[in-house]
């Protein structure tokens, strides 16, 4: 599951957040001044890379080698840590004061929590925060907490509607659906005319958000500290999903391995449409129905609800451990890895979206057609609440979504249950 977190992991994360030494009262480490001569910096940096070890890892290793060639006095110990394990593994190491990496590639939803616990070094005034005006505003926001910068954005992403052009054409549609209403119609037409399922849903909280955003809802209103997941607008979004399942427009969702099941069905031509992000480009293009016919692979913005088209902002940030013994070397490593040149290389080879505006104009990035094809879907990206509790919001939502998808609850009841769970996580917030 791309964005999910297991019940056990969520419970462990919450326990760590509550019991962490110092908690929110832990003094934040002041940023060290930049070294006068970067070439003189020496030492070792341990880097936890949470990217996919098979498809993405080799490119990041190439960049690491380039860094070591530029700064021969600095050695980087590259450790690939599975994304699903990294959040709690880092928190355990940081809390104990032993085994934490100098640099962590963190999910955008982790940064505020880690910073609130005192685990991250502030990056303002250090080489790590280089040319901040070049960053796109939404991904840059994920690295800030209490008016300080604790993470610099490495890649950004969102969800789009991925579709099989040939199946849509067989069903009588030359263009992808632009609204939820059209999504239902096109999916039903594919099922009745093209011999495949129209839509596969990934029963995961992250993938539920476009339906909530589309009807004008959200999980929270951070400004007023109000829980809004049970608002009429948010419930309207849940009802869209409920109707897609009940009407048969969406195939009966898989609950276990939901992401893999939806992705596999799409690659094999068994379903015409799914929601997914740019991280899945390589996987999809290697699939049965796209490998020899890449032009059949369609990418569009997520369909709009009655209010707008909206999909969550995702991605990863580079962060530096506050207890690092090699801060100067770590700052230089982050600056190199997050430069426009490095981002353009990642974009060109992997199709991942840069967070620096200038990277999009570089030849390597422009050489990958996928970068341009994701430009329109990214215009619908919605900034998520960058708060310490953000990492805990998805588990109650996915549990409710699973019940909704199997007919074990209704949209209204699900929303109320999730809202109550949020009240237990967000002290002082109102419904």
Question: What does this protein look like?
Answer:
With 431 residues, this protein is of the alpha/beta class. Helix content is 40%, strand content 15%. It is built from 18 helices and 16 strands. The chain has helices at residues 7-19, 57-70, 83-96, 111-116, 137-141, 165-170, 180-193, 205-214, 232-246, 258-267, 281-285, 327-337, 340-350, 363-366, 369-373, 375-378, 394-405, 411-425, and strands at residues 43-49, 74-80, 103-107, 144-145, 148-149, 152-157, 160-164, 197-200, 220-221, 226-227, 271-276, 297-301, 311-312, 314-320, 353-354, 381-382. The strands form 5 sheets. The chain has a 6-stranded mixed β-sheet, with helices on both faces. Mean pLDDT is 91; it is low at 1-32.
Key phrases:
globular, six-stranded mixed β-sheet, 431 residues, disordered N terminus, Extracellular solute-binding protein, 2 domains, D-Maltodextrin-Binding Protein, domain 2, maltose binding, four-stranded mixed β-sheet, SBP, alpha/beta
What is the element layout, followed by pairings?
Blueprint: H1 7-19, E1 43-49, H2 57-70, E2 74-80, H3 83-96, E3 103-107, H4 111-116, H5 137-141, E4 144-145, E5 148-149, E6 152-157, E7 160-164, H6 165-170, H7 180-193, E8 197-200, H8 205-214, E9 220-221, E10 226-227, H9 232-246, H10 258-267, E11 271-276, H11 281-285, E12 297-301, E13 311-312, E14 314-320, H12 327-337, H13 340-350, E15 353-354, H14 363-366, H15 369-373, H16 375-378, E16 381-382, H17 394-405, H18 411-425
Pfam family, one: SBP_bac_1
Protein name: Extracellular solute-binding protein
Signal peptide: 1-20
């Amino acid at each position: 599951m791309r964005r999910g977190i297991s019940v056990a992991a969520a419970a462990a994360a919450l326990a760590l957040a509550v019991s962490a030494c110092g908690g929110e009262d832990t003094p934040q480490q002041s940023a060290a001044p930049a070294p006068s001569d970067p070439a003189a910096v020496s030492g070792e940096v341990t880097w936890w890379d949470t990217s996919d070890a098979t498809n993405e890892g080799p490119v990041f290793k190439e960049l690491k080698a380039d860094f070591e060639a530029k700064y021969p006095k600095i050695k980087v110990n590259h450790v690939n840590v599975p994304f699903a394990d990294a959040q709690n593994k880092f928190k355990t190491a940081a809390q104990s004061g032993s085994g934490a990496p100098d640099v962590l590639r963190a999910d955008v939803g982790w940064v505020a929590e880690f910073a609130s616990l005192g685990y991250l070094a502030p990056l303002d005034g250090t080489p790590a925060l280089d040319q901040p005006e070049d960053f796109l505003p939404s991904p840059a926001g994920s690295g800030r907490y209490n008016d300080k910068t604790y993470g610099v954005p490495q890649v950004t992403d969102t969800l789009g509607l991925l579709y099989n052009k040939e199946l849509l054409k067989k069903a009588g549609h030359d263009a992808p659906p632009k609204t939820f209403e059209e999504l239902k119609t096109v999916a039903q037409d594919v099922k009745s005319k093209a011999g495949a399922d129209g839509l596969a849903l990934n029963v995961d909280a992250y993938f539920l958000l476009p339906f909530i955003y589309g009807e004008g809802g959200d999980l929270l209103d951070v400004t007023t500290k109000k829980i809004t997941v049970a608002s009429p607008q948010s419930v309207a979004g849940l009802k869209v999903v409920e109707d897609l399942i009940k009407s048969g427009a969406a195939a009966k969702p898989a609950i276990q391995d939901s992401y893999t099941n939806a992705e596999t069905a799409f690659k094999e031509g068994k379903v015409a449409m799914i929601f997914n992000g740019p991280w899945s480009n390589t996987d999809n293009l290697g699939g049965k129905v796209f490998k020899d016919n890449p032009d059949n692979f369609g990418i569009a913005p997520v369909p709009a609800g009655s209010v707008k088209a909206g999909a969550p902002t995702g991605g990863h940030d580079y962060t530096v451990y506050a207890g690092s013994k090699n801060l100067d070397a770590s700052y230089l490593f982050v600056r190199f890895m997050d430069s426009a040149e490095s981002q353009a290389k990642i974009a060109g080879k992997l199709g991942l979206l840069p967070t620096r505006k200038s990277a999009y104009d570089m030849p390597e990035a422009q050489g990958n057609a996928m970068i341009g094809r994701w430009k329109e879907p990214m215009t619908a990206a919605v900034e998520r609440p960058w708060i310490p509790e953000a990492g805990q919001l998805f588990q109650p939502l996915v549990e409710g979504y699973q019940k909704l998808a199997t007919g074990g609850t209704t949209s209204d009841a699900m929303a109320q249950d999730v809202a109550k769970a949020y009240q237990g996580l967000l002290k002082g917030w109102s419904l």
